[in-house]
Amino acid sequence: MGIKEYLSQPVLLDKAINEALLELEKLKQLALVSKSFVSPSKGSGNLSSVEETVEKICRMEEKINKAIDCYVDAKAEVEQLIDRLPSMEQRTLLKYHYILGHTWEQVAEECYISIRNVHYIHGKALGALSAMAEGITA
What's the predicted TM-score (pTM) here? Predict the structure, then answer.
């Protein structure tokens, strides 16, 4: 894994968590709709589909909790690595992009610099981090 991929882990995990949360919400809505159609006189036929949906919800919640744990760990590791950079400008730029998930254009606006300068600083920061992180990304 390269340094860019390593730094991108928190943002990618955050996106995956958000997608899973949307899927979980759909499953919960499905369970509510299914439950409202269950009739006690019809036996357990419809109830089993509700139970299956509830099981899916539980599995999805477990998956989300594991992903959140991974996200917290990855974010802490990436922040620790970024904090080792001597340049505050490089640290700020990398945190905006790799921790907060801002686009390069947003980073340029936040830092009051040109997009060209953002890419220059980013390249310098990646070079410095690559030298520091040889053991981490192997």
Answer: 0.74
